[in-house]
Amino acid sequence: MGVTDTLSWREAADILVISYLVHRLFLLFRRTTALQVLVTLICLRLLLTLARAGGLVMTGWFFEGVNLWAPLVILVLFRNEIREALVQSNPLRLLVGRPDQTRGGEPAAIAEAVFRLAQAKIGALLVFPNRDRLGEYVREGLVLNGRFSAAVLESLFGKESPVHDGAVVIRGGRIERVGTFLPLSTRPGLPPEFGTRHRAAIGLSEVCDAVVVVVSEERGEVAVVQEGSWTLVEHPGDLERELRRRLPREFAAAAVRHRVHDWASRMLGFALTFLLVWITAAWGLYGDGQTSRKSFGIPIDFRNLPPDLDLSSTTATTAQVQIEGQGPLIGTLTAGQIAVSVDLHDARPGTRVIQLGAGNVELPPGLRMARITPPRLQIVLESRIEKRLPIRPVLTGSPPEGYRVEAISRPASVLVHGPESDLRGLDYLETQPIDLGSLRPEDSPKIIAMNVVLTPPSLRLINPADEVVQVEIRFRPESKSPGR
Question: pLDDT grade, residue 197 (50/70/90)?
């Protein structure tokens, strides 16, 4: 039998939900040290499992201790990272995803980085290719092809950088080339304050449709150059709008590529997580590993009995159920997780034979009923009647010499219901026995709380509070006969 043959839709859904939650936790902690710690915990658990499977007793004890204390130690050492990750993500975002942060290659991030350079008066030259190719217009430079970030941009244009005099080519949200030299404009009439960077930006824009952003080292000004003209921008928001307006295909395509890559990465990550959980669960819990069996004695629950009927008799009140399943599931199974029930919603007065089977047994997922004893029940149902019965205290032992005993129950009677045949010939109910040997006359009167014995067991109290009655015990001296 294959693994998929033994997995029900509930078990498959169970694996799917756990896979999704594990994947979401991975996304939540992937940029923190906590993920490495989580992987370490998983490895420790795996080592513990291998030690147990190999019969390495002392090694197993060691890893049991490590697995016991490791979570507490990790919570203490990495509480700040865990708290930060949880604060940044509410439970809804954990389940359905978190909004993406601004990516490094987006216009907003580029604008912020450019104005940081302008504020520090660091000269810079950024080239954004459009439709025309740049190969024949740019010279030298180094191929970087790295992800865009403000820190990288600052280091490239810093005074100590060997490529700070050249231009940076940015395409698709990545820094493609650095230290690149552009053709200088020879057009007359340019403002006298324009230096080499401005002339290079204008020169490139005159021969192709690229957009160039130039930062003035002396004045800290930012200008956008295209088609030989320039526009000064004063705020990051203005630069962002200019880039989006002038390069719609560049940033739209980059956004689409990022979304495709992001979704592909997420789907691949989820698929790998699902496969890992599937293999672990299918072979460790639900798969073709070694099958174990375990038996339990479970009380039979007679449910949905019509209010005008009572169960007079049954051939069994407890069923012996043998459960079959994989070792890990059987090993943790308890009687409290199992229920045996018989539905009597359509019952009628009289004798009835009920076949017991898997439909009468409720089990946790992944387990099966192998056998149930008895396989059938014979029950007798009768009309329910009510009757008030007096309570008779039961006394055992003898009172002290010279005394007689009086026992009075409060309440003196209780109202019960049950099958007609059981109640018809019943005149009273008794309490549990009261030992007179443990009582002394000087304690009289003595009040003792005693349970009412419901015999036969088919009887039920109308008021459950009547299950315990107060019995008053009085010792009275025996009267002497005349002439003695």
Answer: confident
